[in-house]
Amino acid sequence: MIAMAGSVVVLVCVVGGFLMAGGNLLLLWHPSEIIVIVGAAFGAFITSNPLKVVKAAFINALALFKKPHYDRNSYVDLLNLVFDLLVRARKEGMLAIEADVENPSASPIFGKYPAVVADQHMMEFITDCLRLMVGGNLDPNELESLLEYELDTHHKEAAEPAHAVQKVADALPGFGIVAAVLGIVNTMSTIEGASSAAIGHKVGAALVGTFLGILIAYGFVGPIAAAMEARAHEEGKAFEVVKMALVASVRGYSPQVAVEFARKLLFSDVRPSFTALEEHLKNKPKA
At residue 48, does pLDDT exceed 80? Predict the structure, then answer.
């Protein structure tokens, strides 16, 4: 919701300042300019990006008006899930969690955390990592390197929609100039015999194109792209948390210490305290 609030502030301040200076809102209403700028930018966006990025950009932009996928409680559930899996593997051997990994929907461990199970990408990451641990004696450095490669790919893919939208923001002032030039061309074609008032009206309409291109770029599309990138970075932290816990476990640390390593990676606003997480791990009901 903060993204919507920011956009409203931009719009209110720009329009309010214009009205305070004695402006008339009707002077800014030129649908032809909007069609040129927005239409050209949208067409360029589609041309320069694959379909999956186009779809993801719209989905991620709309997601900004919802709360983040992972909050403090979500991370507590994720850390608890990893802890349960590591505890069982440590007590009964890695083969004991093979059935949980192969069929998470029927697993009593995964069943306690439906919010995590609902995240398909996270489930694929967790189960793929555990399959590697169950299936062979991987060196901790090899496992960590492999997971870093996977996370690097994931982070790049998650950031692509934001980068694509940012390129549109960079191009919008140029499309505003295109609209302004077209307006000037239209003005020049009717200058003969036209009154100064009519010429001034057409020149003003042309300048609105430049104004709209800059406003949309720096007031709306650019900030949306930045917010999308920040959201992708925040949600990518969940995968790093899982990686850290599993690698620490392979290095021989106890489940509780491995989870503590993972907790340390979290940003301060979503990181549960050491005491709170420890109490949660000790007092939660058994499966």
Answer: yes
Identify the pLDDT of residue 199: 84
Q: Are 132 and 242 in contact (CB under 8 A)?
A: no
pLDDT (tens digit per residue) in 95-126: 888 888 888 888 899 999 998 888 888 999 99
Quote the number of domains for the chain. 1
Q: Which domain holds residue 47?
A: 1-287
The residue among 50, 57, 74, 70 whose CA lies nearest residue 228 is 57
Most confident of 2-11, 47-56, 95-104, 190-199: 47-56
What's the chain look like in SS3? CHHHHHHHHHHHHHHHHHHHCCCCHHHHCCHHHHHHHHHHHHHHHHHHCCHHHHHHHHHHHHHCCCCCCCCHHHHHHHHHHHHHHHHHHHHHCHHHHHHHHHCHHHCHHHHCCHHHHCCHHHHHHHHHHHHHHHHCCCCHHHHHHHHHHHHHHHHHHHHHHHHHHHHHHHHHHHHHHHHHHHHHHHHHHCCCCCCHHHHHHHHHHHHHHHHHHHHHHHHHHHHHHHHHHHHHHHHHHHHHHHHHHHHHHHCCCCHHHHHHHHHCCCCCCCCCCHHHHHHHHHHCCCC
Return d(Cα 184, Cα 201) in angstroms, integer.
Answer: 11
The candidate with the shortest Cα–Cα distance to 129, out of 145, 112, 117, is 145
